[in-house]
Amino acid sequence: MKNMTCIPLFILMVLFSCSKDDSPTSPEPINNILYFPPIDSDIWETKSFADLEWNDSALQPLLDYLEDKNTKSFIILHDGKIVVEQYFNNHTATSPWYWASAGKTLTTAISGIAQNEGLININNRVSDYLGTGWTSATLEKENLITCKNLLSMNSGLDDGLGDSVSPINLKYIADAGARWAYHNVYVKMQDVVAQASNQSWSNYFNTKLRDKIGMTGAWINSNDFSVYWSNTRSMARFGLLIYANGTWENIPIIPENFLNEATNTSQNINQSYGYLWWLNGKSSYHLPASQLEFNGELVPNAPADMYAALGKNDQKIYIVPSKKLVVIRMGHAADNINFALSSFDKDLWEKINALIN
Fold it and tell me: Where in this chain does the record put each Beta-lactamase-related domain (predicted)?
């Protein structure tokens, strides 16, 4: 995926200026523990280090490290309330930034919503929705590819032909299910949902997800597919929705059973991958642009139950149920350009552990 910062900022700000939902404030939370910010304002309750008995002497080293590693913004939520929120390098709370491949998980969420509405079934063939010829594979091989294969990254299509998802770039290399490869072909799920709903992808996304939880942001086209841009709190809202098992206060948004599938191993090749979510705590993992299997956990010093949305140049959503945490990081690459996982994950968790333990 190309660096998205070349898109004029004023265009993004215009797009985002109309993206707030005008609905009244949502009902009171269903319990006294998990907090949800109002969907119609920027008010967001906070929680102190004293409440959590965290190590406040570890905060400044964490912030210094983040700033040194090209970070734009960083948020930690505990049971929905903000404990840490910091902006760096001229970034602000209202500045938009790209999610890169962390936004893949937005496609997962919408796929679950569309399935719950009876518009799609992820076990069906992609060609059932898009028609045949959406790849350059033979009809026999193309018809092996299901929507679930797209969400699981095991379509069997060649991952070495560039970012474009035009048919000429979607060439057969193995039968669906036989090979795991990190590939932009997942965006065809957006076409599936648009076709099945008879709406544009953006309209369906905004109506069914964004506006229901008070996010701002927009899908910006680049290189034959769309990348999501938003402010940091919008990413945190999405992370909170996932942490809350797909329910915002007492309103179901994403089916919980679908999210359980999405955040567990989805195929038998890469144990550390669900439906576009990366999973910690597994015994092995694969990385983008490689067919090698690596032994051990994705992030050995992070909690084993952590799962994550990981995007190019270290865009991060970490969700840790056992610690009641959602952690957000946006910015440039901490070190070298990368597609998802990097050494930064381990180093960052060393700093976070010093703070929360």
Answer: 73-330
Q: Apex CA 261: angle with CA 255 and CA 266, to 5°? A: 150
Q: Which of 126, 125, 56 is nearest to 84 (CA)?
A: 56
Phi, psi for residue 157 in degrees, rounded to 5: -85, 155
The Cα-based distances of 257 to 109, 231, 245, 354 in angstroms read 12, 29, 9, 34
Q: What is the dihedral of CA 145, 154, 222, 42, to 10 degrees?
A: 110
Q: No. of H helices and E strands in the chain?
A: 12, 13
pLDDT in tens, 165-213: 999 999 999 999 999 999 999 999 999 999 999 999 999 999 999 999 9
Q: Cα(311)–Cα(100) distance, rounded to whole angstroms? A: 5
- Which of the 8 DSSP states describes residue 301? T
Name the amino acid, one letter, at 208: K
**Domain spans, the chain:** 56-321+335-356
Nearest residue to 341 via CA among 88, 100, 85, 97: 100
> 33 Cβ partners below 8 Å, 6+ apart?
79
Q: What's the CATH fold of domain 56-321+335-356?
A: Beta-lactamase (3.40.710)
